Amino acid sequence: MFEIFSNWVAAFFTLCIFSFLYKDNPFYRFAEHLFVGVSMGYAIPLTWNASMIPNVYRPIFLQHRFELIFPALLGALYIFTFNRKLNWLSKFPIAFGMGLVGMGVPMSMNAGVLVQMRGAMIPIQDINTFLVWVGTVTILLYFFFSKAHTGAYGKIVKVGIWYMMLGFGASFGYTVMARISLLIGRIQFLVIDVVQNTIRFFGS
Amino acid sequence: MKRTIPLIIVITLCFLFAAHTFIPHKISQDFFDWYLDWVRAIAPFSVVLGIMSMTMNHSARIQRKTPNWHYSIVTLVGLYFTAAAGFIWGTQEGTPYMWIFRNVQMPMGATMFALLAFYIASAAYKAFRARSAEATVLLLAAIVVMFGQVPIGVQMFGEGILDVTQWILDVPNLASKRGIALGVGLGMVATSLRIMLGIERTYLGGGQ
Amino acid sequence: MNFFEKLQKIDRRWIYLILAISIFLPLAFPFNSRTFTTRPTESLYRMIDSFAPPPDTDPVDHNRAFLMSIMHDASTMPELFPMELAVLRHAFERDIKVFTITWIATAAPLIDLAINTVKEEFATREENPKQIISGVHYVNFGFKIPALYLAMILGMGEDIANAIEIDAEGRQLSSLPAMTNIRNYNEMNLVVEFTGSAPGGAWITYARSRFGTNVAVGVTAVSAADVYPQLQTGQLIGMLAGLKGAAEYEKLVEVFAATDREFSREILRAEMDNPKFALTNDNIPYNFKQARIGMNAQSVAHILIIVFILIGNIGYFVQKYKQKQEVQ
Q1: Is the pLDDT of residue B207 over 50?
Q2: Which among A72, A82, A133 has CB closest to B41?
Q3: Residue C69 is assigned to a structural domain of this protein
Q4: Do residue C52 and residue C144 come from a single domain?
Q5: Which residues lie across from C67 on neighbouring strands?
Q6: Minimal CA–CA distance to C94: which of C61, C137, C127?
């Protein structure tokens, strides 16, 4: 019985959100604001249990690793973010966290640029590898704005535009599938979890 | 001093970690482990930002009685009641905290995004027009991919539709996304370098 | 106002209603349909399957495992959750050690839900029931705060137990049987990230570049077309693309892992219409075929959207033609 009740609560909030499709209304606004509050409220105890206890409380107070008091104090400086005078103190923990960006330079260069360039420079063995090569080069030329897209150069970059249109078309086709899938999920919930389970419960 | 010290911390750590990428020495690894311990102890405090920001924003709305301020009460009640439920009854399965998540947060989060299905259907009907040759190519590619993804597409056009879809994805789509990916990759490296060299400072607030 | 003008100005709420009905009907009345698999899905299936312990080995001692990084909340659950169920089912069917982790607070209960759903199905099934035990068959590393995302990805390259420390149940990782012979990415040499944005980005940039870790993704269909460059270069060894990817994986697990067979395209084709694997077969639990049932609704909705595009364009061109004639 409690499971049926819970399902109906979930169904009520689902329908509150769907009601926006008809027009904006107090049910939707209520649900929207509650959603924002609950989402943030949910993260607090979880962060406490998953992070504050094992990474701050336990090492300092139980394992007596007192050197960790310094980073804990550094983290506590976040509370000055909204204080106009002491706001600068909150930049210290942010700065400490930004350090890993240094590792990102060589690694992003490798993963985002070099490997992709290597992938674009494979031997042309068949028509498809040739077409991929043509597409990549013409698109890169299209994004080179230091030269006007006119004359023969304009015709070459036009090929890049056609490639991009095909690529965007593929993305659009996939996007339709994605959006429909999300609705399928909600209707599956309403049909299977709510209606069918309720009928089964009261039928038995 | 207020901006210089954080900047020195960022630049020093960035160079040390850039070097760490190429130096698998024990000292380098020990330094990374020390950094990991410190980051672990700093990180949990960042959640305070979210709580403070939301509380201050919505309290101000209530105090000033801005339009629809009543809904801010709903947000704050949701925020503090859910958090309190987690601390009082625990965060395990079967607790009120988990019940709120399963039956309030989850269905609403999922439904918010499900609304997009309706909007894309409406846009398909009212906005997607083959106004130019390029737009026609885009629409045709989209229609082929849409047919190629679903079982009914194969029933209507045979298994050839799968090959055509895969070709669009593997050849023109790959080329177009690679061109864009290279641009994004270079952009990421450039942004990281700007941070590393102290040119990009917006994360310290106050612009340049 | 002529017919085509009226057609152009139809109230959007009628469109919403037609779409809702077209999705509701196939879900309320499921029917059989064929699921064709694609190479990115097959590659991931084969990679995970290769992690299965040899027949004469104790699965707990086996030095292979893979990690599921669950980086989404309920908003993209309809696409990604069926994937997670199918991948977990694959792991549990073939005794492959699997670890789960998230850096998103609202994803933590989704991990529990996915694991518990599959565990319950295994414990209560009539044929070959199986008790799946936390810490032995799988470990849920649980929720870790987002600020530790990069640090932990890099830390796991040296020592997983040191980087993660405790699992979702508060136990020291090093004390768990499932961690036997698993130290870093050399053993846990596959990460599958399920995400609605930036698929596999940090794993490719950091774990793959530095440690050579195999990375695969389960993505929402929106991002699927964007990852083809990474698939071609091998930075991603496989991909599950949206609900279709989930349906494909469900089918592969049903046909091969559940019947203890090795993957083969010939068998897959031969079994295409086998009633044992059909959607209307009530012996297959709903949780293990929900993506395939969803694809039936997807079929109808895609046809509907294409019809919408065609009607909209016909109306547009007829109007344009008439306007041209009036000017002349």
Answers
A1: no
A2: A72
A3: yes
A4: yes
A5: C99, C191
A6: C137
Query: What mean pLDDT comes out for the span C203-224?
Result: 93
The residues spanned by each domain of chain A are: 125-204
Q: Report the candidate in C259, C251, C258, C252 with the shortest Cα–Cα distance to residue C294.
A: C251
Euclidean distance between CA atoms A46 and A57, whole angstroms: 15
pLDDT at A38: 95
Asked if residue C284 is part of any domain, the answer here is: no
Contacts of C109 in chain B (CB under 8 A): 98, 101-102, 106
Whether B9 and B81 map to the same domain: the answer is yes
C29 and C47 share one domain: no
Q: C213 and C299: one domain?
A: no
Spatial contact of A91 and B204, defined as CB atoms under 8 Å apart = yes
Residues 6+ away with beta carbon under 8 Å from B178: A116, A119, A120, A132, A135, A136, A139, C229, C232
Q: Which residues of A touch B69 (CB under 8 A)?
A: none
Q: Do C205 and C298 fall within a single domain?
A: no
ipTM above 0.95, yes or no: no
| Interface size between B and C, measured as CB pairs under 8 A | 146
In which band, very low, low, confident or very high, does the pLDDT at C23 lie, cut at 50, 70 and 90? very high
Beta-sheet strand order (sheet of C238-241): C138-143, C97-102, C65-71, C190-195, C214-219, C238-241
Enclosing domain of residue C135: 36-278
- Best CA proximity match to C68, nearest among C138, C121, C165: C138
Task: List all residues 6 or more positions away from B87 whose beta carbon is below 8 Å from its beta carbon.
Answer: A45, A48
Q: How many whole angstroms separate alpha carbon B147 and alpha carbon B129?
A: 19
Q: Is A168 on the interface with B (CB under 8 A)?
A: yes
Q: Which of C166, C204, C242 shows the shortest C-beta gap to A177?
A: C242
A39 touching C, CB under 8 A? yes
Round to whole Å and give the CA distance between B20 and C130.
46
Does this model's pTM top 0.80? My answer is yes
C253, C110: one domain: yes
Q: What pLDDT is recorded for position A204?
A: 67
Contact C232 A119 (CB under 8 A): yes
Same domain assignment for residues C265 and C302: no
Q: Could you give the number of structural domains in chain B?
A: 2
Place of tokens 């070099």: A114
Q: Which domain holds residue B43?
A: 4-89
A42 and C105 within 8 Å at the Cβ level: the answer is yes
* Structure tokens given for C233: 């270069």
Question: What dihedral angle (degrees, nearest 10) is formed by the CA atoms of C240, C241, C244, C245?
Answer: 0
Interface test with A, best of B40, B42, B88, B143 (most A CBs within 10 A): B42
E-state strands within chain A: none
Across the interface, do A116 and B178 touch by the CB < 8 Å criterion?
Answer: yes
Closest chain B C-alpha to C194 CA, distance in angstroms? 16
Q: Which residue has the tokens 């943030």?
A: A40
Give contacts of A33 with chain B, Cβ < 8 Å: 71-72, 74-75, 78
- Treating both helix axes as pointing N-terminal to C-terminal, what angle do B106-126 and A151-188 enclose, rounded to 10 degrees? 130
Chain C residues touching A111 at Cβ < 8 A = 204-205, 208-209, 235
